[in-house]
Structure formats: C-alpha cells, structure tokens
Amino acid sequence: MNELSTLPVMPLDIDALPPLDGKKLLITGGARGLGEGFVRAAVARGAQVTIADIAAHAGEALAAELQDAGHAVSFVRVDLSDPASVEAAAQAAGQQMGGIDGLVNNGAITNSGGKMATELSVETWDAVMNVNVRGTWLMTMAALPFLRASGQGRVVNIASDTALWGAPRLLAYTASKGAVMSMTRSLARELGPDGITVNAIAPGLVEVEATAYVPAARHRHYLEGRALPRAQVPDDVVGPVLFLLSDASRFVTGQVLPVNGGFVMP
C-alpha cells in the first residue's frame, strides 16, 4: 500500500469567521480543549462570553487572560451533573452579561474509553449520561428564559461522529452523543416558535488534551479514513460553531453537522 499523504494544517483566519458583535454567549466546558477554542474565536469576533466549567483554575486563568486583552469575558464554575449547579451557573451568566443570546453545550466526559460493553459499570454509564445528556438538557432549560428574551436565541450542542459510525470500546460516550443528536432535533421543534434555533456539531477525533489517552491506532484509523487526510485540530470546529451562533444561520435548525474531514458522510 502506498504511504498515505497528509495535508498540512493551515492557520485559521479569524477575520474570515462570522461576526458576533454584541452577542452574549454561554459556553460550557470552555476552559480547555475545543471549548477554549470556541471562547477565543467568539471574543475575537466581538462576542461577550461567560465560560462555564468544572475546572475552575483553568477557567479563571483563561478569563483573566482574555480580560487583560480587552475582551468581555467572565467565568462561572459548573458541575453539569448537579441540577442546582447548572441553574446557578446559567443565572449568574445571564446576570453578568445582561442576557444570553447563544448557548454552546460543549461540556462532557468520556469515562468509558477503552472498555467493552461487558466491562462497563452502571456507575460509569450513569456518570456519562448525567453529564453529557442530562446536563445538556438542564443547561438548555436553565438558559431558556434568557434565550427567549433575546429574540434570536441560538443553541449549539457538541455531539460526536462516534455516534454516526458506532465507535467500539466507547459505548457510554457514543450512546450519550447519539442522545444529544436526537435531543437537538426535538428541541429545535419545541423551541422554534420562540425563534430559537437548535443545532449540533459532530466533530471527529480532535487532537486536544482530552484525547491524549486515545490509542495511536485509533488516531491512525481516523487519519486513513478521512477524505481530507490530516489530523483534526480545534480550529477545524470553530468556524461551523460560530456560523451556527451567528445571524447567518438564522433559518438553520434541527441539523447535525459532521465536522470530521469526511470520515463519516451520513
């Protein structure tokens, strides 16, 4: 077999991304990884952002860095498995920013990586579902009064292409992200009369700190299976998320967009 060619990763042109001037965004899981990429791009395009994350040290440090650079950024700690914490975080974000125009449900955990279905414990299954599925629902409901008041509410759920191709040894996470996709469609119909759009992004295997545990063979499997043969980086997901938060996507709702270099083409 011929050696697989690999495309270079080109720098992202932030100025080419959709403008978010004046929009007030709440981004969960925004302290690190993909979420950090969303936060940095959003403020660069004019948004005001509240970072919500369980990782308080990282979240506070990122908020302080961006504040020093002149951006309107704040941090609230949230435990997505705790309904009271979710409600408090949404209320704090809405009060700090004077409203919420857009919500990115990015916070999630894996926990089940590397285990077969027969090896999963009920505790692991419940932990993943409580954060990834119930937490997404709870945060959307907690932010809903603000999104309705906005008159232009946007919800972007971060799913995963693992739910599109059925990744093995990742059952709880894969099932949770499939549930997020289904939830996206139902919420789009329920919240549409309020002028709120609800969409999902399904990234592939992104090279971030949270995926460092993934075996090299799985990374190679993705690389060889992509129509665009290169590693996926956070900047690859930023553009689609900002588009779905922007006015440019005002008539797009209930959609699941795979962003994975063509690894899955549903």
Describe the secondary structure blueprint for this structure.
Elements: E1 24-28, H1 33-44, E2 48-53, H2 56-68, E3 73-77, H3 83-97, E4 102-105, H4 122-150, E5 154-158, H5 162-165, H6 171-191, E6 197-203, H7 216-225, H8 235-245, E7 256-259
Description:
The protein contains eight helices and seven strands, in the order βαβαβαβαβααβααβ. β1, α1 (33-44) and β2 (48-53) form a beta-alpha-beta unit. α1 packs across α8 (235-245). The chain has a single domain (20-255), classed as NAD(P)-binding Rossmann-like Domain (Rossmann fold, 3-Layer(aba) Sandwich). The protein has helices at 33-44, 56-68, 83-97, 122-150, 162-165, 171-191, 216-225, 235-245; strands spanning 24-28, 48-53, 73-77, 102-105, 154-158, 197-203, 256-259. The longest helix is centred in the middle third of the chain and has 29 residues, at 122-150. It is of the alpha/beta class and 266 residues long. A seven-stranded parallel beta sheet has the order 3-2-1-4-5-6-7, with helices on both faces. GO terms for molecular function: 3-oxoacyl-[acyl-carrier-protein] reductase (NADPH) activity. This is 3-oxoacyl-[acyl-carrier-protein] reductase FabG.
Determine the CATH superfamily. NAD(P)-binding Rossmann-like Domain
* Largest sheet composition: 7 strands, parallel
CATH architecture identity: 3-Layer(aba) Sandwich
The low-confidence parts are: none
Strand order of the largest sheet: 3-2-1-4-5-6-7
Determine the fraction of residues in helical runs and give it as a percent range: 40-55%
Please report the number of helical segments.
8
- CATH class wording: Alpha Beta
Sheet-strand content, in percent, reads: 5-15%
How many domains, in number, for the residues?
1
Average pLDDT, rounded to a whole number, is: 95
The beta-strand count equals: 7
Q: Give the class from helix and strand content and strand pairing.
A: alpha/beta
Any idea what the shape is? globular
What series of H and E elements makes up the topology? EHEHEHEHEHHEHHE
Radius of gyration: 18 Å
Distance between the termini: 27 Å
| CATH topology (level 3) name | Rossmann fold
